[in-house]
Design goal:
2 copies of one chain form a homodimer.
Chain A lengths: L12 E3 L1 H7 L2 H10 L4 E2 H8 L3 H13 L3 E6 L2 E6 L4 H11 L1 E3 L20
Antiparallel strand pairs in A: 2-4, 3-4
Chain B binds a DNA duplex (30 and 30 nucleotides) through helix 4.
DNA sequence: CCAATATATTCATGATATTGAATATAATAT
DNA sequence: ATATTATATTCAATATCATGAATATATTGG
């Protein structure tokens, strides 16, 4: 019997492969680790991850187009946050399978200049 | 302060991007849905998913090389199973984010010829 | 050994992803 | 208006992925 010939009794669902495509990249995973602590602007990620701004912007665009993160402008800064915190369940369950320690290639010594990081300026 | 300069108090871990790369493909996700019910041989997937044998074999190789599935020969047949059932937690949490109904493109009308599917032959 | 069955690999081509470099845009301050 | 700051986009070169076609391997049974 063909599954398409009948009204299904249970609704099975499969994930959208696009989610995994967006997650299949070390820089984008690093970005999401920053966003685990809440929203962050690009300069914040620049300071914490050490990637160049335009590179981060490209990777943020991939995550944005995949519907994983959203952005919000506040003056000069654009703050990013995850659309659905359940994304961290995906990351955490995947980390259980084969984890890698966070050996940041691009650890930076810069400090973030954004207003959130410098409230008294 | 650089994270690499100190002994970390907590061990953070990030998932291996290779896992997501392997999952970022509809045929491979369909294969894993078949394996949700337990081990299955290639002809079983051929019958249930309608993909050609050599195509399935290629996709199985990707999942195998990613360490997601393992194989076991029994006579003519090679049975595949997931290495770690936690992979389904990854799939399920991702499906919660953006689910798609199982509209199988390649639903086949073939029946599987393997001994497990035909115990009395 | 030969034939049949189940599965795997290789090859070639087109499509897509990666990433550095350069440039563009948008908001603010002067 | 102009300069500055934060961020985004475009372009081009390279690398990787997707996939059909053909072929190879391994097991079993004569």
């Amino acid at each position: 019997m063909n599954i398409l010939d009948q009204t299904p009794k249970i609704i099975k669902s499969i994930p959208n492969p696009g989610i995994f495509k967006a997650l299949a990249h070390p820089a984008r995973l690093a970005i999401l680790e920053v966003l685990r602590d809440g929203e962050a602007c690009v300069c914040h990620m620049e300071a914490h991850l050490g990637y160049r701004q335009s590179y981060l912007s490209q990777q943020l665009a991939v995550l944005r187009e995949a519907g994983i993160i959203s952005d919000r402008r506040e003056g000069w800064n654009i703050y990013y946050q995850v659309v659905n915190p359940n994304i961290f369940k995906v990351l955490d369950s995947a980390a259980l399978l084969s984890c890698e320690s966070v050996a940041k290639k691009h650890q930076s010594s810069l400090s973030c200049p954004c207003p959130k990081c410098n409230p008294n300026k």
